[in-house]
Amino acid sequence: MEPIIRTDNPVAVLLSRVFDLMVLNILFLLCSLPVITLGAAATAMYDVIFRLRRGEEPSVIRAFFRAMKGNFRQATVLWLGLLAGLLFFGADLYIVLRVIDPAYRLLQIPVLVMLLGLTGVGLYGFPLLAVYSDTIRRTVKNALLLSLGNLPVTIFFLAVPALVVYLCLFSAQLAVLTFSLVLFMGCAALASLYAIFLQRIFDRAGA
Question: pTM of the prediction?
């Protein structure tokens, strides 16, 4: 007698993947609550997602915490550095736009460049840590180079959440729906979407 649920059934595979993403999303959100651990949680989330993409079937919970423990120091250093830089240049941008004389508005250009550079490092840095063992300096360098060398993809990575936030500003219902999806599996689903592009970029670059 065949089992009631066949593991090679496309529907069963899809449901299993959705469940994995739900669990992974909950783990990421819970482990990001202290804020200081967000970088390690993001790295662990990508670690599990790349394993799933390679056809592995890890225990999501066990694999997540193993990856988080293994990458905690480097991911936390990277995250705190990025957070400090984003806060610093974000404050600079606010001062340029809101405080100083409009004649000096051109000062926003280098500040914006720095903010975009830091964002690019964040978009590629944690996935790199999840896949490769390297120093923080080399990870930052590689992340920056990959973000610039794959600019259309980087813009896409930025545009997806930016578009969602923009649309939510005009619809309370959409904002509630988006918040519900984020709690359900939104962060893990977005990371899974990014991982499709990141895997190709990493393979091509031999990062």
Answer: 0.88
Q: Where are the domains of the chain?
A: 10-205
Give the residue from 187, 188, 121 showing the smallest Cα distance to 154. 121
Residue positions counted in the chain: 207
Tens digits of residue pLDDT in 55-73: 887 789 999 999 999 999 9
pLDDT for residue 71 = 95
Helices (H), the chain: 10-32, 38-53, 60-98, 108-131, 136-149, 151-168, 172-181, 187-205
Please state, in angstroms and rounded to a whole number, the distance separating the CA atoms of residues 66 and 70.
Answer: 6
Rounded CA separation 128/16 (Å): 26
What does the block give as tokens for 128? 């790199």
